[in-house]
Every structure is written in C-alpha cells, then in structure tokens.
Amino acid sequence: MLLSSKRITAWAVLALWVAAVLAAVPLAGRLPDAVQAKSTAELPRGAQSTEVEKLADRFRVGDQAPALIVYARTGPGITPADRAKADADRRTLAPLATAPIGPPQASRDGRALLLAVPLHDNDDLSGNAKKVRDAATTNVPRGLQVKVTGPAGAALDTGDAFRKVDKPLLLITIVLVAVVLLLTYRSPVLWLLPLACAAISLQVTSAVVYLLAEHAGLYVADGMSTILNALVFGISTDYALLLLARYREELRRHEDRHRAMAAALRRAAVPVAASAATVCLGLLCLLAAHMGFNYALGPVGAIGILGGLAVVMTLLPALLVVLGRWVFWPRIPRFGDAPPARGGLWDRAGRRIAARPRLVWALGAAVLAALAAGCLGVHTGLDRAHFLTTTPNSVQGERLADAHFPGDESRPLQVVSGRPVDLRGIPGVARTGTPETSADGRLTRTAVVLTSPPGSDAAKRTVERIRHAEPDALVGGGAASELDLADAQAHDRRVVIPLVLGVVLIVLIALLRALVAPLLVVATVVGSYFAALGASWLLVRYAFGFPALDVQVALMGFLFMVALGVDYNLFLVSRIREEAASAGHRGGVLRGLGLTGGVISSAGLVLASTFGVLGVMPVTMFVEIGVLVALGVLLDTFVVRPVIVPALALDAGRRFWWPGPLSRTPARPAPDREPVPRA
C-alpha cells in the first residue's frame, strides 16, 4: 500500500489499475449471465426438498418447473370458446414442453381451467416462462381471465422485477453518493475521486464474481448484484472518506505530499484493514447457513469488501499524490497550517457529554430501548402473495387457482422412495398420482395433492405426518419446500448470529488490545440493531402497509448492521486509543470524537443512502432490508457512535481499556490546542 505514495510507483499503480479496469469492464457486464435462475437454486442445503430436486434428473421427465396457466370466468362458467383457447395453447406450447402436455383440467365449479406446461428448471426457465405467458395472453376471449403461475410464473415475475430496476437503482445510488460527497467536501473535484474508486471497485468485484461463477461454481442468485452494489459503493466510499481525512491532516504536517500520504496510509491502514476484516469475516459466517441465498451472499459479499479495500488503499493514494494538493480546492491544506480550531459540532458535543457522561449514556440507552419496544409487535413470514410489492401475474394466477381448485393442486408434493408408497388414510392427503419409475428402475416418484394450500400450517403438518409415516422416503415440492425453507431460516438465525458476534468481538479485542471497550462497543451495536428493528417494523407496517417482515430480514439486517455498524465505532475507538496515548484518556476521548466526528457522519450518510435506495425495489424483502439497515446506520452514526460510546468511555475512565496498558497509564490533561508539528 505504501508503494502508491511514492513518486515513480504512483504512476505504475495507475497504469496497473487502468489495465485492470479495461479487462474488468467487459467481464462485469456479463455478471447477469452468471445468475442461476433455476427455481430450486435457493432451496436449503441438505433438506429433503432439495434432495428430491437433485434426484429429478433420474426420471424421464427430468428436473421440471411447470408453468400453470389458469383460465377463469366470474360469470356462469367456462364457455366452448374458452376451452378452444386452452386447447389451442396446449398445441402451441407443445414444442416448448419437456413432456406431453395433458388436457386442461376443469374445476369442480365449472368456472376455471388449469393447463400445466412442464418446463426445464434451468437457467432458461424465465425466458421459456415468458414465451408461455405471451402465448397464453394472446387472442383471449372476452371476459376470460388468463394468468400464468406455478414455479415458472414466479421465476418470471421475480426476474422481471430485478431486470427493470437494476440499472435505475445503480444510477440513483451514484447520484445520492455524489450529493453527500459534494456536501461533505464542497469541492468541484475532490468528490469525484471516492465516487470513481467506488465505481471501479464495483466493476472489478463484478468481474471476479463472474469469473468464479463461470469457472469455480460460485452460486450467484437473483438479487445478488443489488446487494453487491449497495455494499461495495457504501464500503468503498467510507474507506475513501477515512483515508482522505487522514491525508488532509498529514498535509499540514509534511511539506512533501508523498511523505504525507505515506504517513496517512500508515495510520489509516490498521483501522481500515480491521474494518474490512470484520465485515469479511462476518459475511463468511454465512457459509454456515443452510439457505441458498444466505450461503451464496457470504463469499460474494466478502469479494466486494476486498475489492473496495484494494482500490481505496492503492488506487486512491496514487491518484491523490499524482494530482497534488489542488484537488482539495477551495480548502487546500498547506504545510504548517494550524489544525482546525476547536469549537466544531462534535467538539462541542464531546465537551457537553463530558460534563455528565453517565446521564448521557443512560438517556441514550433509554432512547434505544423505547425504539426497540417496537420489536414486541413484529410479525415475520411473508406469504408468496407479498413477495413483491406489487401483485404480479403469478400471484394473481395463484389466487385464481386457490379459489377454483382444491388444496395444492397447482403445487403438489413429490414423494421419492425406493418402493411405491401408500399414503391412504393420512389426514390432509386429497389424492395421489400414478407412481413414476426412474430410468434405472430403482426409485419411484409420486405426486401427492393435499387438501390445504402449500403455505398453510395445515399443509405443513400433513408433510410432517407423511415424513413420519414414510421415514425412508424423501418428501419435497409444494408445502414440503415451504416447511424446509422455514426450518433452514430458523437454523441460520440460531447459528449465524452468534458466529457474527463472536467474530466481531475477537477482531475488536485484537485491534484495541482491551476487553472492556470491545464488550461495550458490541453491546451498543446490538442495542442499535434492536432499536432499528423496532422502528423499521413500525415504518414498514404502517407507512408501507406490509403485513409482516420477511424471515430473511432479521438475519440480513443483523449481519449488515453489526458488521458495518461496528466499523464506525472501530474508527472512533481506535482513534481515541491513538490520541489517549499522548493526551490521556479524557483528552483522547474528546480529541478522537472531534477529529473523526465529521468524516464518520459523512460515511454513515453515504452507507445509509446506498442501502436506503433498496426501498425503491419491487421485492418486499429488499425494501425491508434497506429500511432496516439505513435506519440502523443512521442511529449508529448520530446516536450510538457520537453520544453513547464516548459517554461510556468517559464514565468508565481508564477501565475502558482494561486489561491493556492504557488502563494503567495515568491520565494526562490534553492541551487546549494541538501544536503544529514541524516538517
């Protein structure tokens, strides 16, 4: 990293990054091609429903995701023209199907038809489902509703939702970050550098993810690029802001800007690297998850963090020393300039906190507790009808199917066993299909229609009864998949959350060489998480009108808030530790808060903006994650980090650093004004 601060090597670093970007841009543009669009890609690892899908290739019809076309009338009933339309669709779609399409099935009330079109469950699923929908919605008789649902219809609607917003979302993110940077620096040039580094980080990261997906089997799910955009833009800009703040300080101490950059890198490298390690290790804890999306996000997110770290700590220093001091215009830091005078916002805040620190942190904790009280009313578990913020074609079709066809006719269970199964007499089973034999003759697969819809508790209890009655069989599809998803999500919360807390605590202990300070910092971040969770639930319930939080939100929100929220406290406390070595504990706390307050607040606004942009997504889960993380980061930036943590540090005194050496060092009063260092 120090190489980029030297005269000759700075140009070499720039040349290397230019070559890297030229190579990365075309590969990054192909990242959408690496997304696995299979409807089963996100099933839990090791679950029965997942094993059933893996065995699908052993049967003649293979791995399928049917497109279910529902034809319904609200009037007296299906007409001959409606039947002719369904028969015409059956003939038109026959070349697209993976097996013969059966005749349309009529509902008992005579007002609906159901046509099942078997499609391959592969990366072409969304495209084939679109062909089905286009054909089904052409030349429709007047008064007839035609909707495409089933796994293929859901995959099509989800893919459409992401494709429509990916580019606009990235543009909104760039604009918001640019506005925050302009307000922060009030410079016509300087704001471009962090933004350019964030954009380059995203291109390089996307290229690496694409290469690993194509050649190393890395799983990239729908929506992964959306999370990656927010994460890389936010974290890269944060690191750039911190390095720029240090560089500005050192330019006042060193006449030569290369020496100033070398000093800035030495002092910023440890907290920035510790921050990156905290976030990376926290994300990699997701490798213990069972859910496919959670498991995949770990390595993809860690790659994004490392990409941002590499760009900010090599390319940005090279750009700064090549361009010179003028990039800070109109507020150019000159050698020998006095440090900014005391009396700034965070300096004044620190002195007021120091007057009564115990009262301050107690009031701050009370605010967090009041917001956290909203968690008491949280409802979790969105149904399929609320997966998107709109009501797409597949959801409308599922409602029509549920209204006219019994139970889970549209999504039956699949029972795979080494012998034919007998499910007669099991409560909740409506009927079973004809057993199908695998190509090698060793397995049978039986479709089982239940009396209850797949998402209902009654259907899940029926699955448990079938699994108990047939312990040697594998039960998947329909309600079994819903049950396995709920179990996997509960497992991930139980396992991943303690792992993340443990990793964060270990990194803080290693960096701060203390035990009390890391425990207090982690406690404040956890408190801000529950406060943000309570506040975000009230917001999404009463402002957005969502009936529940997606089960993924609690885990994703915790991961991002704790891993990213600890960053700001890490930057603050590491600077306090640095200043306390020369100014004593109390002086170190006040000086550390005054020196880092502005830059960390700006960094928090950037990160909150990048995640807040998720609020315009059409996917409910992403909206809820965006709201939760944005609120949490703002709480951490303006309440926990600048108020509660300094108050706790001041109240604890030197015990804050126990058992490290600073806990035994007598406090020395800080000078009223920092002396201007010589060259």
UniProtKB/TrEMBL annotation:
The chain crosses the membrane at residues 168-185, 192-213, 225-247, 268-289, 301-324, 359-382, 495-512, 519-539, 551-572, 593-619, 625-650. GO terms for cellular component: plasma membrane. It is found in: Cell membrane. It is a multi-pass membrane protein. InterPro entries: MMPL_dom, Mycobact_MmpL, SSD. Residues 520-650 form the SSD domain. Its main location: membrane. Keywords: Cell membrane, Membrane, Transmembrane, Transmembrane helix. It holds the Pfam family MMPL. Belongs to the resistance-nodulation-cell division (RND) (TC 2.A.6) family. MmpL subfamily. This is MMPL family transporter. It comes from Actinomadura montaniterrae.
